[in-house]
Amino acid sequence: MKEKEPAKPDKKDEKAKPEETSEIKKTIDDFGAINNAFDFRSDIQYLTIIGSIEGHSVLPPQDKTTKYENIIPQLIAVEENKHIKGLLTVLNTVGGDVEAGLAIAELIATLTKPTVSLVLGGGHSIGIPLATASKYSFIAESATMTMHPIRLTGLVIGAQQTYEYFRRMQQRVVDFIVRTSKADLDTVNHYMNATGNMANDVGTILYGKEAVKIGLIDEVGGLKDALKKLRSMINEQEANQNSQK
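Now predict its structure.
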């Protein structure tokens, strides 16, 4: 007579091993996400631009930063990787280094693949060119964008050449915004140099619908809208490529 095999424990009663539980908890504590949150394959690259755009100088360690030397290789990889079909850029930035921001923005603007940006929270200062650099842009209804002239902190040499340098750098930013958005030159200059909108400062704070109204951003929307638009752009590009074969 055969002995009965011991009953197998119910899967519902099975618990994660202590080391697995510890690893999952560590991931949640460090990143606010569980291990399998990114366990999938996608043909869309997701790029986040948060905090301050860090340039040639290292910002204090307590600051949230986006380092341009980390972003630039990613963007080149997006262009070169045949498995990536589109780029979604998510922004919540206070701005930062002008030249570093423009370098990232120029790379995004010159990608041959479909690109969509989504402004959440805020896309301020040099964050505006980073938002308009994509071929199509969204902004959350609760998000804001601050347009203002270029500033510099620290020692400044009070010479004519300094003022000319500021003027030309400001023009670089304005020209990029006009080139990559539906806002015209007069509108950008007007809001950037306004004096009645911000206390003790020059510029304008634009809320979601206002940014769309002046042509700075294409549409008010959220993540689902941005992904839907990017998918349609990818499908359109693939259809055009197939028709040319």
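The beta strands are 44-54, 65-67, 86-96, 115-123, 136-139, 144-147, 204-207, 219-220.
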